[in-house]
């Protein structure tokens, strides 16, 4: 069996590793991949946005299954292109990927179908947005409507901050066309939880819960990033909360997309806020989260190829999704200066310490191999993940494992998973 994975980050490395454990013994290709995927698969130098070349490669190599990891190609319609050529592909079509591709669409969907979320207004005129903000209750949240690498969200404590945010998003276009429309939401207080699910258009199967840490610096300070670390499961995602979400959020979302003639097959990632007044949906993603994938997949017991194929074929209800009764923590090693300016090309040492280990992993994100050396090649460089019987043990093991890796300008948060200490 031949499989192509599209993407080159820590999420894709985690997917490739899980695929490599399949009883089907697949031959795996990754486009474009990184230095980590290169060790267990064949990297292909094709951009994730070069749909024609990716389709041609899949046709010529007789690829049996393609897995789309990233949001940009999904929102751009890569699945539609593959399907038109008769190629088997995992991920939502363009008209379903809009669930992540447009914040305004997802908010309107939730409002229409009674899915709990924060109150909001949307604007495509900056002057109208500013007029609304003059009378708003603060703090408020500004969200760029389109894709912004997880960074197009601003929490504003007063009108001055909100005015600066509107200028950044809608006038200066810091995130390009993603800021053509802005959603202004009420600020929700509570604890965030991430829940990933497989979806086959009709049925869903929940993966284990996780909690991400988006801010760049300790104490949840600094700029939003793509994620600086995560842990799984979340002890705050209780059985009572799970029952509520199954009744009011998960199936309702799948049914709403089908009712809108936007059948969703792939991954729906739910960003949830556990507020005093109940669970609210903060956001949807239409693919595996990163770095959440790096703590969720190492805990999954199923053969992932079986699950992917059940989603495509509409048979997910026949799959008994199982996860180990353990915990995982991921600490992201980044280049100092991320998410703004940072240097690339720094030599990484210590990766050999993770070879043939089954409880610590170095998932590559921004890396490349040059003349035998592995070099930094992005803001988030590695996801250091550890598994253990408990969250506290996994966290301690993950931080010990970060000491095994060295590169110039290495940076990380020192408080990933600290909230588990408050859980009794």
Automatic annotation (TrEMBL):
The EC number(s) this enzyme carries: 6.3.4.13
Write down the chemical reaction(s) this protein catalyses: 5-phospho-beta-D-ribosylamine + glycine + ATP = N(1)-(5-phospho-beta-D-ribosyl)glycinamide + ADP + phosphate + H(+)
Q: What is the lineage of its organism?
A: Bacteria, Bacillati, Bacillota, Clostridia, Lachnospirales
The top EC class, named as a word, is ligase
Species for this entry: Lachnoanaerobaculum saburreum DSM 3986
The Swiss-Prot or TrEMBL record describes its family as follows: Belongs to the GARS family.
> What GO biological process term is on the record, naming one?
'de novo' IMP biosynthetic process
The family database entries (InterPro entries) matched by this protein are listed as: ATP-grasp, ATP_grasp_subdomain_1, PreATP-grasp_dom_sf, PRibGlycinamid_synth_ATP-grasp, PRibGlycinamide_synth, PRibGlycinamide_synth_C-dom, PRibGlycinamide_synth_C_sf, PRibGlycinamide_synth_CS
Pfam families from the entry? GARS_A, GARS_C, GARS_N
**Name of this chain's protein:** Phosphoribosylamine--glycine ligase
The keyword Manganese belongs to this UniProt entry's keyword annotation = yes
Residues forming the ATP-grasp domain are 107-313
Residues passing through the membrane, by range: none
Q: Which pathway, metabolic or otherwise, does it act in?
A: Purine metabolism; IMP biosynthesis via de novo pathway; N(1)-(5-phospho-D-ribosyl)glycinamide from 5-phospho-alpha-D-ribose 1-diphosphate: step 2/2
GO molecular function terms listed in the Swiss-Prot or TrEMBL record: ATP binding; metal ion binding; phosphoribosylamine-glycine ligase activity
Q: Which domain of life does this protein belong to?
A: Bacteria
- Which UniProt keywords are listed? ATP-binding, Ligase, Manganese, Metal-binding, Nucleotide-binding, Purine biosynthesis
* Names of required cofactors: Mn(2+); Mg(2+)
């Amino acid at each position: 069996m031949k499989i192509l994975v599209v993407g080159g980050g820590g999420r894709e490395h985690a997917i490739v590793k899980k695929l490599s454990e399949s009883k089907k013994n697949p031959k795996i290709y990754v486009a474009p991949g990184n230095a980590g995927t290169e060790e267990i698969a064949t990297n292909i130098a094709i951009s994730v946005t070069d749909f024609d070349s990716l389709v041609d490669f899949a046709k010529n190599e007789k690829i049996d299954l393609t897995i789309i990891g990233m949001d940009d190609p999904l929102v751009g319609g890569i699945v539609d292109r593959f399907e038109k050529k008769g190629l088997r592909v995992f991920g939502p079509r363009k008209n379903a990927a809009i669930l992540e591709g447009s914040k305004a669409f997802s908010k309107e969907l939730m409002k229409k179908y009674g899915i709990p979320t924060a109150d909001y207004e949307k604007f495509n005129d900056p002057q109208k947005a500013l007029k609304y903000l003059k009378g708003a209750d603060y703090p408020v949240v500004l969200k760029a409507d389109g894709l912004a690498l997880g960074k197009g969200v601003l929490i504003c404590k007063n009108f001055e901050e909100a005015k600066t945010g509107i200028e950044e998003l809608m006038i200066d276009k810091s995130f390009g066309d993603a800021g053509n429309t802005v959603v202004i939401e009420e600020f929700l207080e509570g604890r965030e939880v991430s829940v990933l699910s497989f979806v086959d258009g009709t049925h869903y199967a929940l993966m284990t819960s996780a909690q991400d840490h988006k801010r760049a610096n300790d104490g949840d300070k600094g700029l939003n990033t793509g994620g600086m670390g995560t842990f799984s499961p979340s002890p705050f995602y209780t059985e009572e909360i799970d029952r509520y979400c199954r009744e009011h959020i998960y199936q309702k979302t799948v049914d709403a997309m089908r009712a809108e003639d936007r059948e969703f097959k792939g991954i729906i990632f739910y960003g949830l806020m556990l507020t005093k007044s109940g669970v609210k949906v903060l956001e949807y993603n239409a693919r595996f989260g990163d770095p959440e994938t790096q703590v969720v997949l190492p805990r999954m017991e199923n053969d992932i190829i079986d699950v992917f194929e059940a989603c495509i074929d509409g048979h997910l209800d026949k799959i008994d999704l199982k996860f180990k009764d353990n915990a995982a923590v991921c600490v992201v090693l980044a280049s100092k200066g991320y998410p703004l300016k940072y240097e690339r090309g720094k030599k990484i040492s210590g990766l050999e310490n993770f070879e043939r280990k089954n409880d610590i992993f170095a998932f590559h994100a921004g890396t490349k191999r040059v003349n035998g050396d592995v070099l930094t090649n992005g803001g988030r460089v590695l996801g250091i993940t550890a598994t253990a019987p408990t969250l506290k043990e996994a966290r301690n093991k993950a931080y010990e494992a970060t000491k095994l890796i060295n590169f110039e300008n290495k940076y990380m948060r020192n408080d990933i998973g600290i909230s588990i200490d408050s859980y009794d």
